[in-house]
Amino acid sequence: MIKIDILSDPICPWCLIGKTFLDRALEIRPDHVFTLEWHPYMLNPKMPKNGMDREEYLINKFGSKHNATEAYQKIIETLSEHDIDINFNNIKRTPNTLDAHRLIHWAGLEGKQEKAINSLFHEYFVMGKDISNDHVLSSIASDISMNHKSFNHAIKTNKDVKSIADRIKNASTKGVNGVPCFIVNNQYVLQGAQPTELWLKVIDETVKPNNTKLY
User: Nearest 10 degrees: CA dihedral of 136, 138, 140, 146?
Assistant: First the structure.
């Protein structure tokens, strides 16, 4: 198997788009040799623990509602073109994602990381849930059949907070300044939401003998 390490933030629309493109390629090539591992990154590391009103967040980030609308235009067009479901109107708050990353990490220890990623994206981008809320995260953990008792205890503590923060800092130190970021076989870096067609080329190159280049 060849590992793809993915740095992502569950409130990043391009991360959902990039995952969708990759998933579609993997579905087209069901005999692929890839395994995925997700790693933490925070677009807003200084976000208050309880998050903030999304409209306020967008105005602070882009300067005005008009600027925010323009900044999101490419995202809206990409979603429409590729039939990807995001309902921005449902999203009322922009959360701090540290605890969501803890959930992803713990889900990985139970072999359920992909389910956790899918659930977080769905709950935030489709349902508009606040994924910094312990009850929302607990519900996700239950839905994907994690050890619910263990999760509910751990989420109320500082377990793995420092290690997650250190991993995020380490990624930034190594030059990662945006997500999604895909690292293939610990050698090749693909930054941003790469199209399904490119992923198909990557998959096909991996099965060629004496391969020295993935894309």
Answer: 170
